[in-house]
Design goal:
It is a single chain. With 206 residues, this protein is an alpha+beta fold. Helices cover 33% and strands 20% of the residues. The chain is built from five helices and six strands; from the N terminus they run ββββαβααβαα. Strands 1, 2, 3, 4, 5 and 6 form a six-stranded antiparallel beta sheet that branches. A hairpin with a 6-residue loop joins β2 and β3. α2 packs antiparallel against α3 and α4 packs antiparallel against α5. The longest helix is centred in the C-terminal third of the chain and has 20 residues. It is found in: Cytoplasm. This is AIP/AIPL N-terminal FKBP-type PPIase domain-containing protein. One of its GO terms (molecular function) is peptidyl-prolyl cis-trans isomerase activity. Keywords: Cytoplasm, Repeat, TPR repeat.
Amino acid sequence: MDDKLVEKKIIYQGKGNADYTDGTKVIFHIRTETCEEEPHVIDDSHKWTKPVELLFGKKFKLEVLEACIRTMLPGEVSSFIIDKSLLAPYPLVSKTLREAYGKTKVDKEKKPHHCCGMGFKEGLGYQDLDELVKTPKDLKFTIELIKVAGAGSYEKEFWAMTESERLESIPVLKEQGNVFYKEGNHEVAGKAYSEALGRLEQLMLR
């Protein structure tokens, strides 16, 4: 991480170590704002349905943000002022996070904007992000690292699995459903079967 382009300030010291391997899962809150005299808040995960989750080493689209979090200890709260030259992917990342975690969609423009900063032919659907594409800015990220789970210590979500892991997960879910059904827990069994079918459909579409 280039200290000339990223300025870190520790707000609350964490505990433990930051020796994270690829596959480590981190859960964190993030607040993004401009660095102007009167900052404009772009995103705040405290207002979303839940904190953000990230798996290290999974080619996160905003590499600088992953690099920042890798410097943090569990429980730490830090701010990072990041140079605009490193933030070209941020508007698209922000859009993805809003639609994955946001409580409500931000009011979208009726007509798409034509943006050239990142090669977008149409706008992202969020006026503030479209403006950020047109006029990149240095941004301040305040991150609270809530939880760290080492690789192999948690159950992977479907999107984070490899192709072989996805295939192997389907019969496992089916067998779990069978066990719950035999125990008379039909509601839980139904959820397991539905999840297995949903995963199978996604693989077939691929």
